Here is the input.
Amino acid sequence: MSAPTPTATSQPITSPCPECEGPVRFDRPPLAGQVARCTDCGVELEVTSTSPLTLALAPEVEEDWGE
Amino acid sequence: MSVRVSIVGASGYTGGELLRLLLDHPGVELAAASSRSLAGQPLHRVHPNLRARSDLLFTVPEEVPASDAIFLCMPHSHASREIDRWLDKAQTVIDLSADFRLRDPATYRAWYEEDHPAPARLASAVYGLPELHRHAMRSGSEPARLISGVGCNATAMNLALLPLARAGLIERAICDIKVGSSEAGAEPSAGSHHPERAGAVRSYAPVGHRHAAEVTQELGEFPLDVSITSIEMVRGVLCTAHIFPTRHVEMKDLWKAYRAAYAAEPFVRLVAEKSGLHRLPDPKILAGSNYADVGFDIDPRSGRIVALCAIDNLMKGAAGSAVQCMNIARGLDEPAGLGFPGLHPC
Here is the structure.
């Protein structure tokens, strides 16, 4: 039997952050290519697969801290 | 029912912070604030932020009434000389000085170069860091009798290193600590004179700071070196700890260790983001707050771990932590009266 398809009214969906293993939460079913941010370590993540839900680090933009 | 509390030695900075916290505390009735030199004068004479917040006048220590809890904010060694008197007046005494932080009289003598005036009390005093000794502050319905304050620099070191010590990761640690001017207290000195202190980056304790003894006592034996520098800041401590680990670790391992230690802690926040201006702890945003912000990173070339902890030295490093201890000991809600998150910008 396949896993139930999440809907907007179901429990939040979580997947571990590939950087810190903290729970990355989606209030709605994520879409492939969607960008999210880990609330623990702050990395930007990309949804690379929705079934199974898989996250990867998004390409970083270099910062200029002015120093 | 409110907890009736008094403060002995309330004219200094830690006394002022205790007054600020306790006057707004939902579970506390402030019975007395003593200062021998200011007896009869209003609190705002030396704590101007408290103007119109209380009708209380400073009293002499002899007139401090029996209380549920008494906070002692006296100069070094005064509390230990008078401890029996204050324990007779209150079920719980919380001493913010360094007098009861070290459990071993020989260790006290080694670091403070004098015999302890009340060595029999040392073993039973609870070291006042809730993250380590919460359960000793209240046993069943019985509050601890004597709780020590914590060294502000020691708190920053202890909270930065605790998860790594528990994980057996510390081969050696070097703590570089930057501190603000309020650490020196309210009494002026040549070193605090504005032309000398303003703009200073003064290495005032490159070796041998006494707070190292508190870290060894609480976290166990490992080679620990401490250097402290006064910088242009009124409140705040930033500990940058360099840890040479016992084994190779990755960021995931550190997250696991720090979450295990602090996930349930109401006043420790993990700040270790990969990007952004506020990605690591900074004491600037913690002024007036009881939070300790803790962060970490790894040098991929050497394997060195860098662990950071930022606090307000007068809050999590002194008065805030003491109120947190009182809340626990007296069975109050642990975060009560400590909700202020700090200011941004400030």
The first strand of chain A starts at residue 13 and ends at 16.
